[in-house]
Design a protein that fits this description.
Helix content: 10-25%
CATH class of the largest domain: Alpha Beta
Number of domains: 2
Strand order of the largest sheet: 6-5-4-3-2-1-18-19
Strand content: 25-35%
Largest sheet: 8 strands, mixed
Order of helices and strands: EEEHEHEHEEEEEHHEEEEHEHHEHEEE
CATH architecture of the largest domain: 4-Layer Sandwich
Radius of gyration: 21 Å
Number of strands: 19
Bound molecules: zinc ion
Oligomer: single chain
Structural class: alpha/beta
CATH superfamily of the largest domain: Ribonuclease Z/Hydroxyacylglutathione hydrolase-like
Length: 315
């Protein structure tokens, strides 16, 4: 199964000629989850050949403009497309007034069934199909949350071990349900005849100061999308405005045994993000500085990450 992260924009507060405000479309397990639609995200989807009407879940980390100004366009497009299934919006409860204004800021024919999910505490906030969406508090100037999106693992029986233990037919079902089974060879546990399948995890760490609070978000993530607004030589600015630097993000990815780090949310001062990528890789080699309109596809079974552009295909 492939986890597909589409990068719509990578700018922080100020867009540049090459970088749109941030915005990310995660396509995984049949779900289309839009994260932090900054200004212009609807058009970025169009350029990238990504379907806006397919979006059913929208996660907003916080209500700074670069993370939510694109919401009205997305909602109005969904409404225009006469989407009949509910569309869920997950956001910090403290930003309720901002959300209401974004949803009603211009005249349109609202036909959508909106499922509003304000976050008031950490933990699981929503089940999107097979995916569990958890929110964990970030340290920013206003209330903000990071998202950990999990495809829960489980176990798979090992046929050979079952045969060796003499378990077959209905007994397999009983073992599956009860976790252990009395056999002629003694008590057989489910774990002893099965293979554990780990949780698969996508994490999004939006604007935050560094600290231990990111640990439960990042822990063993297969793919970590993380803000790195500043490079190391601007550490003072990062501290002043509650942001991560390349070094703090890469070190956190390393410490939390992340498989791949995708950096984003770059300050407008950086023209070329290759220098950012280089600095990240000095600490955590499996790092990438995201570019607008690119797609990262992670084959979970083999942990192979492919990067492709979305621009060429669509002219
Ligand atoms: Zn921001
Ligand atoms: Zn912010």
């Amino acid at each position: 199964m492939t986890m597909e992260l589409n990068i719509l924009g990578t700018a922080s507060q100020l867009p540049t000629t090459n970088r749109n405000h941030g915005g990310y479309l995660l396509r995984w397990q049949g779900e289309n989850i839009l994260l932090d639609p900054g200004e212009g995200i609807q058009r970025q989807c169009v350029i990238g050949g990504l379907s806006v009407p397919a979006i059913r879940t929208i996660c907003i980390s916080h209500f700074h403009g670069d993370h939510c100004l694109g919401l009205p366009g997305i909602i109005q497009r969904l409404s225009l497309a006469k989407v009949t299934e509910p569309v869920s919006i997950i956001y910090p409860r403290e930003g309720e007034d901002f959300l209401k204004r974004l949803l009603t800021c211009s005249d349109y024919h609202q036909t959508l069934s909106l499922h509003l999910l304000p976050i008031s505490r950490e933990g699981m906030v929503y089940q999107a199909g097979k995916l569990r969406i958890e929110a964990i508090k970030l340290k920013h100037r206003i209330p903000a949350y990071g998202f950990r999106i999990v495809q829960p693992g489980g176990f798979r029986f090992d046929k050979e071990k079952l045969i060796a233990a003499g378990i077959k037919g209905k007994s397999v079902g009983i073992l599956k349900e009860k976790g252990e089974l009395q056999t002629e060879k003694g008590i057989i546990t489910r774990e002893s005849v099965s293979k554990t399948i780990p949780d698969r995890v996508f994490t999004y760490v939006a604007d935050t100061a560094p600290g231990n609070h990111v640990k439960p978000l990042m822990d063993h993530a297969d793919l970590l999308l993380c803000e790195t607004t500043f490079m190391e030589n601007e550490r003072d600015l990062a501290e002043a405005y509650d942001h991560l630097t390349t070094g703090t993000a890469a070190k956190a990815a390393l410490d939390n045994q992340v498989a791949f780090l995708i950096a984003t949310h770059f300050s407008e001062r950086y023209r070329n993000t290759r220098v950012i990528e280089k600095e990240l890789r000095e600490v955590f080699p499996r790092s990438y500085a995201a570019e607008d309109l690119t797609r990262f596809s992670l084959v979970l079974k083999t942990k192979t990450l492919n990067v492709e552009t979305l621009r060429k295909k669509n002219g």
